[in-house]
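Researcher: We're teaching a course module on how sequence relates to structure. For the next exercise, students receive a sequence and then see the predicted structure as tokens, so they can try to spot secondary structure elements on their own. Here is the exercise chain.
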Amino acid sequence: MSLRLPLAKNYAWAALSLLSALLFAKLLPWHTVSSESEPPAVTGELCIVAPATPFDPKWGIALHAPRTVPSDARCPVCGMYPARSRDWAAQVIFSNGDTQFFDSPLTLFIYLQDPGRYSAGRRASEISASFVTDTASGKWIKASDALYVSGSSAMGPMRAGNLPAFSSMAAAQQFADTRGGVIMPANKISPQQLQHLNRARRHAHP
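Model: And here is the predicted structure for the students to work with:
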């Protein structure tokens, strides 16, 4: 009896040690991972969170009138801050007064093709007005009434070809004579043209 007791105690301690080791490995799996392991690759598109700016009656403007670009507003298409490139900024205003701001007419037109893709729950039928910045005067003008110059040497916010907007044919022609490009109304801007210009922007600003 006196010989079996120490042996039993040894078996008990061995079993306890094994159980502790198993629990340690189970609860702390990082202990066996090499510090040189690479993080998992990121796949899929980058999701940009750019909430609409709600209307504030304190602004003292009409519900669907163009408004100043807030410094913290982000373009829902590319993620840039339109206030940093005010000469190119654009905006859409929804029926309830909410506004999405854009860094350029290009991203505005890309957005108008499928608002729900960039603003969850939004529909084109909810948009009451859209505006772009007149390149000549810096004032807001209706996007549907503006003339655009495509293929000029002007570099947009992302340092690539863009669609500078003008309120008059004379101003657009003067710009095209100096910087090149073709003048066109909003209804002549095709999805293929937008895709081409957007691809150029991504290459210039990866």
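Model: If you want an answer key for the exercise: The radius of gyration is 29 Å. The chain is about 30% helix and 15% strand.
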